[in-house]
Structures are given as structure tokens and as C-alpha cells.
Amino acid sequence: MPWSNQGGGWKGNNGGPWGSPPPGGSGGGGGGGGQSPDLEEILRKSQENLRRMIPGGSSVGGKGYILLLLLLALVWGFTGFYRVQPDEQGVVLRFGKYVKQTQPGLNYHLPWPIEEALTPKVTRVNRIEVGMRGFEERGRNAGVRDVPEESLMLTGDENIVDVDFTVFWVISNAGDYLFNIQNPESTVKAVAESAMREVIGKNDLAPILTDRRPTEVAVQELMQAALDGYKSGISITQVQMQSVDPPSQVIDAFRDVQAARADQERLQNEAQTYANRVVPEARGEAARVLEAANAYRDRTIAEARGQADRFSKVYEEYRKAPEVTRERMFLETMERIFGGTDKIIIDEQAGGSGVVPYLPLNELSKPRSGGASQ
Questions:
Q1: Closest CA to 172 of 181, 159, 161
Q2: Mean pLDDT across the stretch 263-272?
């Protein structure tokens, strides 16, 4: 029963493509009032509309169909143009198979269903939280909820620590990212938790609590090595530890231990500071005393040698003129002895002549006051 373009109906005696309608129609109650729509009439109207759209008169010829096909082919060809945004990378698939990557801008691929393009955002920084979950209430951030099954870990010295951390990652290769891993976020999260547990298990508790940077770097390197082994096309940009604490059941006792250790280190530092200050001072004082003793020794030896040389010189002169030398030695000795003492000269022969029998030389050397001089 082929369709006739000229006759506008179906060949045959069945009255339509699905045969004759059942007697009495399809409406409720009978009488033929609820018959189904006439499909032949709908197709006839569609054909008339197509004749009006295509140039060439009332009948659709071979040229009209060719023009229609060319128009459809042109429109179909234009559907192959697509735009890749600056933060995206284009991935072209041919019958579902990866073919190539395209850069940002206007690009072209064979129209669907031959080829299609995917444009994942490769510069957007993705974030995954491990050990904690942020939740919202009434459209605003209400806080963070702890997830113990992810955050509780065992350290190398057999202590339990509660670690909450965040992983930041970007897409480095769109092709590997789309086709080598099935669920990227779950994969990154599983790798992050595994890497953190491995690094925590190799270190003691104290360095993990005091210095987080080595742990973060080690986890990032271990994660990147694992994801590169999967050829995931993911690059880990940063691992940030949000909180590192003992379990809540023992956190008070642990803080007391940490405070005691801090006091111990403080006292040790103070003692070392005092030792660093006192020891150099003692060494300096000892060096000063030693230098003073050496100077006194050298001075005493020099003076003794000078006295010996002087005595030898005096003795030589004494041998040449004993009387003169003896008199000179006497006068010099008396000068040295009486030079720093108060002297009074008493004349015992003055008697009762009325002359003052003594001369207070020490009073003559004192300065006179203004009234006495007047």
C-alpha cells in the first residue's frame, strides 16, 4: 500500500494505513460521533504546505527535493561548529571514540552523529573535603560536620589522631580525565584518604601536630604519583590540613601533656639562655684576671731590673767618689722620705730672744683666704 503523491491517498480497499476503523467508531456511546483524526487529511495538508514553501509551482518535482536536501545538508553541516571557552578544553569523539583535543576558540567537527565535542572546564579548581562535611541551613553555611570513619587515623607510634583535610585539584588532560576514570571525584577522594593514612602511619604524633607542612607535601606527592599511574588526567594543586587533633575522648588529657611538654621546653630554653650568658662572662673575667696577673708580673720584673740597673750605676759612681756619692744618697733618701710629710723646724738656740722658736712650713704651703690676705 504505497503512498501516492498525485492521488493523495492509500492504494487499496482498506481505507487507511491501519485498515478500516471499527464499526461504530472509537467514541463512547456509538453513532460515529467520536471518530479518530483522519491521517490522510493531515498528510495531505503537510504536502500542500511543503509545495508552498518550495519554489517551482504547485507540484513538487525532483529539483525541489534536491534543493530541500541541499538546505538540510547545509544546516546539518553548520551544526558542527562549536565554541570552546577560555577555561575549557575541547575533546572530539568520532562515533564515541576519542580522536583529538582542541584549544579555546571557535572549532569544527563533523556533525552529529558522526562526531561530537565535549568541553570540560580544565582551569576550574575543584575541592574535595575528607574527614568533614560542610552543611547549610536556610541557604547559609551553618558549620562543619565531622566524619569519624574518614578522619580517625593511626600514627606510627600507635596513637590515634583526628585529621580533617581538603584536596584541591584541576584537570590537566581532558582526554584522560574523561575516558580513563569513571568517577573522578570518588577516585580523588579515595586516593586522598589512602595517601593520608599511609603518611600518618609512617610518622609519630608529635611532628604531625607541630609541623603540618611536611605531611601535606608528602600526601600531595603520593596522590599525584597514584593518579599518574591511573592516567587520570588530574593534577593535585594543594593538600591543606584543616585540623589535626587527638580524639575528642582524650583531647583534654592530651592538651595537659602538651602543656607540660611546652613548659619543659621553655625551662630548658631559659636554662640554656642563662648558661649562654654566664659562661662567656666567667670566661671573660678569667681572661681579664689572667691578663692583669701577666701585666703585674711584667711590671714587677721590669721594675726590679730597673732598680738593679740603677743600683749598679750608683755603685759605679760610688766607687769613683765615695764621700760625694754617700752625701748625695743621703740627701735623696731624706728628700724621698720627707717629701710627703708635714715639717716644722724648731730652733733650740733661740731661747728667750723673743723669736718664734719654730717655723711651721706646712702652714706656708696652704692657700690664704681673702680676709687673711687683706
A1: 181
A2: 91
Rounded Cα gap, residues 134 and 221, in angstroms: 26
Q: How far is Cα 332 from Cα 310, in angstroms, rounded to an integer?
A: 14
| DSSP three-state, residue 136 | strand
229's grid cell: 599511574
What is the rounded CA–CA span in Å between residue 310 and residue 50? 147
Given its phi and psi angles, is residue 112 left (phi above 0), alpha (psi -120 to 50 degrees) or beta? beta
Q: What is the pLDDT of residue 132?
A: 80
Cite the beta strand spans of 147-233 per DSSP E. 152-154, 160-171
Give the DSSP H or E segment for 94: strand 90-94
Beta-strand pair 90-94/97-102: antiparallel
- Angle at which helices 251-320 and 322-338 cross, to 10°: 140
Beta carbons of 230 and 181 less than 8 angstroms apart: yes
Query: Is it the case that residue 27 has pLDDT exceeding 50?
Result: no
User: What distance in Å separates the CA atoms of residue 303 and residue 6, rounded to the nearest whole number?
Assistant: 151
Q: Judge whether residue 57 has pLDDT over 60.
A: no
CB burial of residue 243 (10 Å; 0-12, 13-18, 19+): middle
